């Protein structure tokens, strides 16, 4: 993970860039990378997220049921007001995060129950939605680059939290000869992903019988087999690819291309 300062700076900067981009858009302008949303839907999402997570930090939220009882913000009557309250909500969230250590306990929907999860998640949420706003509003449909450290951290988050976080009580059985090494070509960071079968009952009572991924730091730390495939790109292009945003350069595939293709299919099938 990065420092609290880096995450808070990202939340502030990326949210401001998002609002700048959407300020030039019509309220009902289509967001191609979020096809169910228009410009004001995207702006309200950021506002709503920042209000919600500040409430998590300021209210006695310990369980999912507590989070569900938090009062959602009302939608402003005018677009100008929406921009104003969004900016204020971002500042309030950053201010509240600054009053806590990343290691402090805080509710989240993930297995990581910490303030650090909230700071990290909101930083990456802001980055991806800033990209959405710029893709929708720039004439060429492009977007400005992502800080390389933030991009590498975003790859780590999506792999460990969204794709490789095995629920408590669930057994993960990796398939033999299914390891794919993911390589950030510019930073040298690597991860190992194994195609695995999940089975059993989670702590929340959910029954599992599905194919997913197991993620490890390298090809020896988990006690399973070595990689048979490679999936590589710059940290930013990996970050964009996993979050299904336009890449600058297409990732490269190597080794057992059938296994790599299945890894890609499983990663793309996940509910992000």
How would you characterize this protein structure?
With about 270 residues, the protein is α+β, with helices and mostly antiparallel strands. It has two domains: about 140 residues, Four Helix Bundle (Hemerythrin (Met), subunit A) (Up-down Bundle); about 120 residues, Nonspecific Lipid-transfer Protein, Chain A. About 45% of the residues lie in helices and about 15% in strands. It has a five-stranded mixed beta sheet. Helix 1 packs antiparallel against helix 4, helix 2 runs parallel beside helix 4 and helix 6 runs parallel beside helix 7. The protein is globular and about 55 Å long. The mean pLDDT is about 95.
H/E series, N to C? HHHHHHEEEEHEH
Helix content: 40-55%
- What is the strand arrangement across the widest sheet? 3-2-1-4-5
Form type:
globular
Number of domains: 2
* CATH-defined topology of the largest domain: Four Helix Bundle (Hemerythrin (Met), subunit A)
For this structure, the quaternary state is single chain
Q: What's the total count of β strands?
A: 5
Q: How much strand?
A: 15-25%
- The CATH class of the largest domain turns out to be Mainly Alpha
For the report, how would you describe the main beta sheet? 5 strands, mixed
* Structural class by sheet pairing and helices: alpha+beta
Radius of gyration: 19 Å
Number of helices: 8
């Amino acid at each position: 993970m990065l420092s609290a300062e880096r995450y808070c700076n990202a939340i502030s900067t990326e949210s401001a860039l998002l609002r700048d981009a959407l300020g030039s858009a019509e309220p009902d302008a289509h967001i191609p990378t979020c096809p169910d949303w228009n410009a004001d839907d995207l702006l309200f999402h950021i506002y709503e997220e920042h209000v919600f997570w500040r409430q998590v930090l300021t209210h006695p939220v310990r369980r999912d049921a507590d989070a569900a009882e938090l009062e959602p913000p009302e939608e402003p009557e005018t677009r100008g007001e929406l921009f104003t309250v969004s900016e204020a909500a971002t500042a309030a969230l950053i201010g509240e995060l600054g009053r806590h250590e990343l290691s402090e306990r805080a509710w989240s929907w993930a297995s990581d129950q910490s303030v650090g999860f909230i700071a990290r998640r909101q930083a990456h949420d802001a980055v991806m939605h800033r990209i959405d706003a710029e893709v929708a509003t720039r004439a060429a449909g492009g977007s400005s680059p992502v800080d390389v450290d933030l991009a590498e951290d975003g790859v780590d988050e999506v792999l460990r939290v969204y794709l490789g976080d095995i629920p408590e009580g669930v057994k993960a059985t990796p398939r033999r000869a299914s390891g794919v090494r993911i390589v950030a070509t510019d930073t040298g960071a690597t991860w190992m992903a194994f195609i695995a079968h999940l089975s059993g009952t989670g702590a929340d009572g959910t029954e599992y019988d599905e194919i997913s991924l197991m993620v490890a730091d390298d090809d020896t730390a988990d006690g399973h087999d070595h990689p048979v495939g490679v999936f590589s790109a710059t940290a930013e292009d990996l970050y964009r690819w996993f979050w299904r945003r336009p890449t600058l350069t297409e990732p490269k595939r190597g080794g057992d291309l059938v296994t790599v293709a299945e890894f890609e299919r499983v990663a793309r099938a996940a509910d992000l």
